[in-house]
Batch of 2 targets.
Target 1
Amino acid sequence: MVVDETDPWLLFLKALFLKRLSRKEEAVESVLLSIKGYPWNWSAWLLLASCLGDRDELAAILPLIELPKDHPCMCDRLLKPDFFPESTWIMGMRAALLYHLHDFRRAELQFDQLMKIDPMRIDDIDILSNILYVAENRVKLSKLAHFYLNVDKDRPEVCCMVGNHYSLRQDPERAIQYFRRATELDQSYLPAWTLMGHEYVEIKNSHAAIESYRRAIDVNRKDYRAWYGLGQAYELLNMHQYSLYYYQRATALRPYDVRIWQAQGMCYEEMGRFREAIECFKRALLSADMHDITICDRLARLYNEIDDQNSAAVYHQKIIDTSLAENKPTFQYAKSLVYVASYLESHNSDLTRALAYAEQVAKSNAEEANLASEMGKRIQRMVGALGLGAGAGAGVPGGEGDNVDGEGDGEAEVDENGDVDGEVEGEGGGRGGNALDSYLNEEGGEEGGEEEEGEEMEGQHFEAV
């Protein structure tokens, strides 16, 4: 029992004992009171962090922490001339913070300033090597690796930097050698275990990768990168049920990470569970740019798999709008142009726009040019037969659940708004055209899958570091 309940140091000691007794809630209460009394006790903040299990618990206690309004800028404030302008420790903390915020340019500049003050400082250089790896700055990473090897070759941070150097040179065997040496020097050095697991994934040694990731989890079960790596390793073994479990553990720790949601969606897709895959890619789209073409293309293909042509057309239209805004060449989004044109044709809706899309593809050097040319001729005949002007039809629906009237009695009528109801006899109905269906079956699966897998593997080392 603490005699003075207001003394921050006694409250900190009380929290330590409660943590040891596995009385976590009481420990959190005591350490919060300690921080309130003296917010400069770094050990108290570390103790609080160790008591929190996930983001939900963090979100719950943040309102209880009384912080000054300028707290987010505390590192900048402490580096001002009237405080500690040349404190290498604060500079290292600021660089690490910028790195975790994905502000790699400013983080690298902070490390450059730090090395000018103390070029022999080895702490945190593994974070600098991660930044240089992501930036693919091979020259600078190579120079620093050789320099710090001469300073102290028996520091795990130095071994990690050299491992990143060899990994960037596409030499996974040498990279694994240095990452393993880092773990031998310090078995609790988490980055080396995770990075070594990624290198084993690169050389398709899934069993060794799984062992590395499990060792990383033994060091820190809150590290999402190890859980994510386990999911990737089990995917190499085609054990998708296991992969799903580990991806779900990773998303619980990092719920806003686009790459993990995409990996989980791809896993569901491989298992043929398309509706679950759609939900995962939708969740990824919330965290990413809402007009991310790669995710929209995946969603459009999945909706096509479950015969929801209406929603598939919506995402193809998003791809078209984004591509036009970015002035991309036609061949890069020709598939979406053809799909939307076929959808509009089959539903007798906005034929003028369908014709414009078909002609755009037909005039390009895309593989779909011949298909678009034939479609354009059909649409021209329909427009001529119905005598439609520009802007006829309702167009592609604006979102999921919108219904387009594709049923009819074999006759076409133009209402007072210029919309066409019914179907033209002899043309395709509900699914948007047989020619497009066969095209998607031939081209959609192979091309999209390889592109997404390539993107994931390209970025996996970045997620690990």
Target 2
Amino acid sequence: PRSLGEKSVNETSVKELVFDKLVSALRTVAAKSTLFDLNSEREKFAKDVKEAVERDLKHNGLTLESVTISSLDQTDLSQMNAANVFDAQGRKRIAEITQSAAVETNRMEREAEQKIKEKDVETQQQVLNYDLKLQKSEADQARDVSNAKTEAERQAAEFRIEQEEAVSKREVEKQRAIEAAKIEASKKADFKQSGKRPDRC
């Protein structure tokens, strides 16, 4: 804080005069909020401290122009007196906050680990599903190829049988024609020898 008196005073005198008042005001205002709230609302903290201390300073002929909060930090535990009720409460509160923060940090770390594991399981499941789909696709493709090959072989066999049957049929017809021609020729020869004309078939 910066203070100016209505009469000329040196800096040391001002510090000695207002130190206790400022410390008291700071503690009074700070006790109403958490350290985190005070840190995030420094302007309000400074305003409340100014309002709390400026009336007392006027009685000493000083005017408090402004209050600036430059930094905030907790008191070192080594400087706290366990026999002092305020320090004891402070130590207790610090322990509660740090323990709660440690528990919360541990919880968040466990949750993060769990999410990583769940993501790994999900990824593995996706890979497994992909492999299964790939295997099924390959099996379907192999089956289709096998079916197509079997069908082609069947059609080729049918065509070969049909061709063989056609050749066999033509051969039979050819033999029949030859036999018929031989019979006809034999009849003609017999009729010539007998002098009769052969009957027309």
